[in-house]
Amino acid sequence: MTIRSEQRAADLWDDDGGHTPSNTGDSPMPDHPDNFVAKTFAIPELYGISPGNIREHLEFYKGYVKFANHIQNRIRETPKDEAHAYELALLQRRFAYEYDGTKHHEVYFEQFVGGPGACVQGGPFLNRVAEDFGTFEALVDCLKEIALTRGVGWVMLYSDPETGRLIPHWLDEHHIGLLSGLRLILALDMWEHAYLCDYPASEKKQYVEAFFDNLSWIKVEARFGK
Fold first, then answer.
1. pLDDT for 75-124, tens place per residue?
2. Do 183 and 157 form a contact (C-beta atoms < 8 A)?
3. How far apart are CA 156 and CA 173, in angstroms?
4. Residue 151: how many other CB atoms lie within 10 Å
5. Class at the top of the CATH hierarchy for domain 124-224
6. CA torsion 178→182→187→192, rounded to 10°?
7. What SS3 class is residue 36?
8. Helix (H, G, I), strand (E, B) or coil at 187
């Protein structure tokens, strides 16, 4: 008796859906040149966001790295034939969740390194802000308003390489609603794990205020200029 492809896929989905895979435990992923490596961030003491919250949040980030590698390895190991096509499709879909979770967190944490910093007055970024939003304060108010969207997700600020326009956006989860062809220059994590050590869900607005108090706009400006 053979196990149907759909049943194998259901079991696989459970393994790759946020639970520790039974075949990996806490052991490191097999060494492979394409495996991702968790980055470290020299984050100073932050206003309104505790060191404990940052430590817990970094552990979440490492989990995304671990599972991105795990899924990559499963894809490499799974036979590329019709019998396994359903499993491979689920793995490919799940990979986007883990990979984007990894990369968005790296943008998020990097924004705290070096402490808060202001943009260059009269520089290309602030000139673009004035063109698209009128004032810098209007841009920040727009991003804060988006952050209060119900549900979990990300507040993103993109720049369009073709037009230079700044495009604020709400992103569900990590991979649903991505905008193609844009450059990510600011990322605000609005999943509850980003702030629950410091604020209850009903006070997430305070977390949003703390994020902007600690944000290095220098990093945002540098991404805009790439």
1. 999 988 888 899 999 999 999 999 999 999 999 999 999 999 999 899 99
2. no
3. 12
4. 9
5. alpha beta
6. 0
7. coil
8. strand
